[in-house]
Amino acid sequence: MRQSSLKLFLENQYEKYHRPEYLCMDPLVCLRKYSAPRDLEIAGLVAAALAYGRVETIIKNVSLLFDLTENSIADFARDTSLNRKLRVFKGFVHRFNHGSDLARLLHGIGSICKKYGSLESLFIKGLSSGDTTIKNASSRFAREIRRAMPEESDNRRKALDYLLPSPESGSACKRLNMYLRWMVRKNDGIDRGTWTGVPASMLIMPVDTHVARIAGSLGLTKRKSADWAMAEEITSRLRECDPDDPVRFDFSLCRTGMVDFRRKAA
To answer: What pLDDT was estimated at residue 154?
Structure first.
């Protein structure tokens, strides 16, 4: 697709689907429960970590988990013991992640927030003056939180690490990049704009097999594997359409694909 045609298509889809009424098909809808930045950044990371599988199941399980943490997920992460977290989440299951995985993730997040002040502060510490994308900062961010999680038995460690992927593995890190989009992009009725110290121009497109298929059909990528290299290639093309905010098209492109898929399946 020619650049002019691509930009026109992207802008048309953005105008059509980048609207709050389409949040019902997105885990972001769960974050409406919170308004304080300290809660939003933690709730966002948990919601993104669980954002795999059917969207209806994701929203149901994320909402349940938030209810279990009572009024403030930030206070719960910071101020409760690991044993209490394990008790509260006992019996919780989201596909191959158990309540013990979420207890350890939230305990690690709480430790990070007490050490650095916030998740945003940790992320910003990973940014260097020569960075043009969030790749290096994302790798440090994931590495530090994983280190802060209490140790788990070998048979659960793989499932625990799955909650927080890292670009170091070559993975597209769709859920981590989605989380960063939620936090960094301005509060426009869709994304939350909770973080102010990370430029939107550095964000990387969240890519999974679904997005990869759409991107391939639009000529945004020639790569076949939905990995980090593909995410960078797609982002590079989108940056030609919007240098300051390349991933603003993510939400609308996902809605385009979901609406088309459900229409065909009906």
So the answer is: 64
- Residue 215 identity: A
Query: What's the confidence (pLDDT) of residue 206?
Result: 97
CA neighbor of 46 nearest in space, from 138, 158, 182, 140:
182
* Regions of the chain where pLDDT drops below 50: 261-266
**Range 177-203 burial, b when 16+ CB lie within 10 A, else e:** bbbbbbbbbeeeebbbbbbeebebbbb
Q: Is the model's pTM score more than 0.90?
A: yes
Report CA-CA distances (Å) from 172 to 46, 48, 177, 243, 249: 18, 14, 8, 21, 17
Q: CA-to-CA distance for 246 and 240, rounded, in angstroms?
A: 8
CB neighbourhood size of 110 (10 A)? 22
Tell me the C-alpha distance between 88 and 148, whole Å: 20
Q: Take residue 181 and report the two structure tokens written for it.
A: 């989009």
